[in-house]
Each structure stands twice: as C-alpha cells, then as structure tokens.
Amino acid sequence: MSLIKHLNLVDLRLIINIAQSRSITRGAHSTNLSTASASKRVKNLETKLGVNLFVRTPSGITLTPAGKAYVHHARLVQQQLERLSVDLQRYASGTEGHIRFHANSTAITEFLTSILPSFLKDHPETHIDLFERMSVEIPDAILSDVADIGIMAGRPTHDNIEVIPYRTDKLVSIVSPQHPLAQRRAVPFRQLLDYDHVCLPDAAALSGFLHSEAEKTGKPLKVRIQVTNCDSVCRMVEADAGVAIIPASAAQRHIRKSDISVINLEDSWALRELYIVRRKNRQYSPIIQKLQKILLEDADLQNR
Question: 282-287 long-range CB contacts below 8 Å, 24 or more apart?
Fold first, then answer.
C-alpha cells in the first residue's frame, strides 16, 4: 500500500515537534497550530496509516515503534527539503547551475577552451555539458530543449531562435612551404580538392562541414590522415602530409611555431559570422545569463 498520498509537510513537522516535546499541546504550539487542530491531525493521520504513533503515559506522550519509524523518516524528509531549499536558492542567486552548451568546432577550439575554464573556476558549483556539433544541427538542439545555449556559424532562420552576434572568423587553407600552392594568396576550395587533406576526425563539426561542401562541388575530399586537434594538423601540414583547412585564428596562432603557408579561400562560406543562439521567450537561469555576458565581453575585448 502506498502511503505517499497520506504524507503532509505540516503533519511531518507536527509529529516531530510532539515527539521532541512529549506533549501534543507544546508540539501544536511549535507547529503554529491549536491543540484541538493538532489532536485532530494526529488522529486522522493514525487512521490513514492504520497504526498508532503515540502512547499516553503518566509522564507524557511517548512514541510507539511505528511512531519512532515515522519520526526517523520524517526527519530525513525534512533534511532533504532543507537541502533542496539551499540548492534552489543557489540557482536563484546564479551561483549554481547546469548548462547544456552546443557549439561548432571553431567556437570550441578557438574561444571556449580559453573562456570556460576560468568561468568554471569562478563558479565551482556550476556544471557544463559542452558538445561539438555542426552549425546546422544547433538550432534544432535549441528548439528541442536538448541545448540551453549554442554558438554557430551563420544566422539561423528559425522564428523561435534568439540570435546574438558573437564573433567573425574565417576558414583558411594551410600548406607546406614546398607545396605548389604555397605562393598563392587565395585559392578556391574546389582546387584544393585536387590534393590530399589533413583533417580532424569525422566526428568533428568542421570535418562534416568540409565533406558537405566537397559534395556540392562533385569532387571528394581526399583525406590522407586524420588527427585530433589543430596543432597536430599544422605539424602534419608542415611535414607535407597534405593541405588542410582550419580557422584563421588557429592558423595565425600556429604560424609562429610551425613552418606553414596560409592561403585565403575564395569561397564566400569561408568568412563565417558566429552567433550565440538560444530559444526566444524562455526564462534562462542567472548562471546562463552570466555565461552569455562573459562570452560577449571577451569577444568585445578581443575585437578592440
């Protein structure tokens, strides 16, 4: 038999207070009830539970074995409710939260990896689930409540998506100094498809994007080797293992320590506007608002 429907927070406090004071009158007073109301509540509760919780003795009221079990669990429930209250206050004050964050490759490797560690350090009770996704997948994740916030390339067209300009970045090609294209200032993506490529893993959003663009040209993306990060990509290109396409911000960071040539792409999609996206008309927790504010402040600082 389920007893949950018979549980009442006032009754829980009343039984605890009566047990502590060994008096219905004093227990009722501690619970802000009249003695008559408290007595009626105890009687009704015992009837619903089918057990007696108290026994009257010359020295006062004592608990029955069932009453002791009730008080034990009532105190546990009370403690859990107090913890719940503290946790909810943290969420309300913006000191704690759980953020589901979806972003494309560029946003994660070039920006979020430097911003999120300090954010988490300043908010030790906040947890972030960060997932790398292709930009075209992110609006659906927001609308289906799989993600709270996202960063994507290109402005989404969904009416229920709030769009906030974040940064501008572009994709560039990198080649070894010995490569036939090394002296070129710009090349079309289609021409790069004639050469072997050094790529990130298939699961990386950038790899998926490049394969998609290659399909549009009718030519395959010839993957010679896949490595896990842009640093490894640059090292492989420097060793003439193939050409690669990476964010310009990554290329500029690595050109100082790698012997590579950076070539602009002539394709319009290479220039990428990044946007913070989230669902319209949704009340977001203070911690998500704080994260968005920090992202925009960092972008503004870098653009100066």
Answer: 284/148, 284/149, 285/91, 285/94, 285/97, 286/91, 286/92, 286/93, 286/94, 286/97, 287/91, 287/94, 287/95, 287/96, 287/97, 287/99, 287/123, 287/126
